[in-house]
Amino acid sequence: MSTRVKICGIRTSDALDAALDAGADLIGLVLYPKSPRNVSLDEAAALTLRARHHGGADVVTLLVDPDDALVEAVAEKIKPDLIQLHGHEMTARVEAVRELSGLRILKAVPVGDAEDVAAAFDYLKPNGTRAQMLLFDAKPPADPGSLPGGNGLTFDWRILEAAKGRAPFALAGGLTPENVAAAIALTGAAIVDVSSGVESRPGEKDPERIRRFLKAAKVAKEA
Ligand SMILES: O=C(O)c1ccccc1NCC(=O)[C@H](O)[C@H](O)COP(=O)(O)O
């Protein structure tokens, strides 16, 4: 089975259509006001409806340390397929968001070393009551003003050796049309997730780069 591709940080219907027409498997919508990719609840609901009409892709709503009211509003108004938690949520909070929303959870984990990877598997226990999949991403810069993700930074993919054979995982962080095949070959990721690497500037998706990313990812194979 070929690697699934998530195009994250979609803000406009043009960018959405470019991703869907190019064969994206998952669409990421960022609800985080500090992000240049932020969309409102209403915008996310409209983009989700458009994706549903096109068919073929799952919609992922990305949240950072959301409160209960936001989780409930997302579940009711957007009705995505998954919620991506991209903040400092610990296992109990992930479980609570799963219960409150009734949705599958993709938990983003910042990776610095092999211990981060080994510890992340606690998010998958006990059998599906917390997150359904892990997303390994680069650690954000230490600068307090930096975003928790979407920074276009890579990490040493060899660290993910510790994850191989345990459970399918998603990979993010500085992926581009130029390096995604190498990332898949080395890590065997089930999903590759990109935002900055298919943009002309923060928040502006480039349809040609989206097409190139999908093409490169879909022919790549684990080595
Ligand atoms: O994209 C953002 O602005 C963002 C803000 C806050 C938390 C996470 C955010 N993005 C995460 C992603 O887009 C992806 O899941 C992933 O980190 C890819 O980012 P990139 O390195 O830019 O390809």
From TrEMBL:
Residues 5-215 form the N-(5'phosphoribosyl) anthranilate isomerase (PRAI) domain. InterPro entries: Aldolase_TIM, PRAI_dom, RibuloseP-bd_barrel, TrpF_fam. Gene3D superfamilies: Aldolase class I. GO terms for molecular function: phosphoribosylanthranilate isomerase activity. It comes from the Bacteria. One of its GO terms (biological process) is L-tryptophan biosynthetic process. SUPFAM superfamilies: Ribulose-phoshate binding barrel. Belongs to the TrpF family. NCBIfam families: PRK01222.1-1 (NF002295). This is N-(5'-phosphoribosyl)anthranilate isomerase. The gene is trpF.
